[in-house]
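Wed. Picked up where I left off yesterday with Molybdopterin-dependent oxidoreductase. The coffee machine is broken again, so keeping this brief.
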Amino acid sequence: MLGFVLLCALPVVIVTGLLDWVAYGSGAIPSDVAGLHLPRFDWPTRPAWLFRLTQGLHVGLGIVLVPVVLAKLWSVIPKLFARPDRNLLKLAERATLVLLVGGILFEIVTGLLNIQYDYVFGFSFYAAHYVGAWVFIAGFVLHVALKLPTMVRGLRSRSFRNELRTPLAETRPEPPGELVAPEPDPATMSRRGALAVVGGGSLLLAALTVGQTVDSLRPTALLLPRGRTAPGDFPVNRTFAASGIDAQAVGGVWRLGLGNVRFTRDELLALPQHTAALPIACVEGWSIQQTWTGVRLRDLAALAGTPAPTGALVRSVEDGPFARASLTAGQVLHPDSLLALRVNGADLTPDHGYPARVIVPALPGVHCTKWVRTIEFAA
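Structure written out below (tokens, as returned):
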């Protein structure tokens, strides 16, 4: 049963994770991963909630499955470290376990640490988590190919409904087989009790996580580690203080550079303004929809002398790996893609990117550059 749940749910985590990698690949992140890159294509801007959905499913479902993964590993411990037979099929199966178990534990640990912004592992999360995913995928595919018949036989061997009605006093070990201990101890928990514990743990994590993606349930998102600031009281990954930017650089001397043209913030506010309700979603799994107001990027491209841009490079006042992002032509030309100056009817705060930040439909939050300094439109 545990294997069946993972067989149904893990492909969703895998596919959404790979889609998120494609979405991130449009900017300065992620790192180089040699020949493991997926085929390149422009990440779509419609629907605007696309990245919110894929990232929310990837992180949320990944967290919910942690109790199932741990229970699955616990259930096979009697055989996990047993010496395998000298049968080639058994040796191949054991080899897949190295990739499967090592891969999924690596993905869980690095993923949970990334959610908490705790990079104790000392290497690039983006590259390592992606490479680790391919190790896990290889083990997962091979293991399913080898063990699917065993799982099907196991599910057909007894009635699930009857098993849920079996109390502890009547719980007996399974017949000797591949995953049964040689001399099993008496049961200390019924099978329905074990499934209830695992399912209850997953439901609890779901209740504490879903508010990171569903706005109406945000007060329940107790696992959300981000601070929140007004206007809108929505999360902030990187605060102004953490950026190390000199306050003077975003004060009265700030100018937006568009090639040879420069604009003060007041001059930008004097341009035609557009308002759009757009979500902002980050790799750590949280997302929220806010109302943004600013100048359309396509209008700025026209002012810069590039009415039909093939892309854009946005640079921040900040230094470092998060200081720039590349946008595709579709992202620049979307009618709701903005250089935002205000959010929820108020000026941006320094934590949210004052004096100006980029907001683009379906774009990962890390590429919605804050404290924008220049935008270079490609012809």
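Quick read: The first helix runs from residue 2 to 24.
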